[in-house]
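Propose amino acids for all 236 sites.
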């Protein structure tokens, strides 16, 4: 007779471990992309200590790349802050989209959790919310925590190895970011009609990138997609 309790097979996995498991493909995509950011930051004069401070206090890859690109000696801090706020403005809509799935959970826990809300965490949490009707903060902690630690630690490693390897984009590491987003979009595909606001947002962002200075393509694409989705959802 086997000594293994057959009921163990029916025990559901820990929400934390399930979050880590779901985040694993994105964690692997983070590694080369974080190396690129860390190496570029080191080339701008940031130390291996300053780089993880940058990525740890502002967990948003797009604005971090923009900040590093604008970095100079002395740095134009007001410009960097303004561009960072502009690029991260999409988080307002991302956070608003999560409200129904956090409903009923204590605000003192939800607000700190939103600090770790990047695009990839948002996609995982949104999929979890649509599947179960709510986002378990333990699941969220597993997914967000693993991605956060991977990102911060690998940007620090990138800052260390960057001066040794030189321009590591020649190895193709910078393709990790588009690859991760393609995977996210594929997982959120709900048909051609549901994707139409994405197309409008893309066209608006491209036009703004061509004709407007700075990072105005971010709010332009966001607002165009949001307005399209709102008009499509209105009753006839």
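Proposal:
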């Amino acid at each position: 007779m086997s000594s293994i309790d057959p009921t163990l097979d029916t025990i559901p996995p820990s929400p934390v471990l399930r979050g880590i498991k779901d985040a694993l493909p994105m964690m692997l995509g983070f590694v080369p992309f974080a190396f690129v950011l860390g190496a570029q930051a080191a080339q701008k004069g940031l130390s291996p200590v300053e780089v993880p401070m940058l990525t740890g206090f502002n967990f948003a890859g797009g604005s971090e790349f923009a900040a590093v690109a604008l970095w100079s000696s002395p740095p134009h801090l007001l410009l960097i802050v303004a561009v960072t706020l502009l690029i991260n403005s999409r988080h307002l809509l991302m956070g608003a989209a999560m409200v129904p799935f956090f409903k009923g959970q204590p605000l003192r826990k939800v607000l700190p959790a939103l600090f770790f809300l990047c695009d990839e965490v948002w996609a995982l949490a949104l999929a979890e919310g649509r599947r179960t009707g709510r986002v378990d903060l333990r699941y969220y902690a597993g997914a967000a925590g693993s991605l956060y630690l991977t990102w911060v630690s690998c940007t620090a490693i990138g800052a260390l190895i960057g001066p040794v390897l030189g321009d590591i984009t020649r190895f193709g590491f910078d393709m990790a970011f588009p690859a991760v987003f393609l995977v996210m979009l594929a997982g959120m595909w709900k048909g051609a009609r549901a994707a139409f606001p994405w197309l409008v947002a893309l066209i608006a962002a491209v036009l703004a990138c061509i004709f407007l200075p700075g990072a105005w393509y971010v709010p332009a694409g966001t607002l165009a997609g949001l307005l399209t989705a709102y008009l499509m959802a209105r009753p006839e």
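The chain has a mean pLDDT of 81. DSSP finds eleven helices and no strands in the chain.
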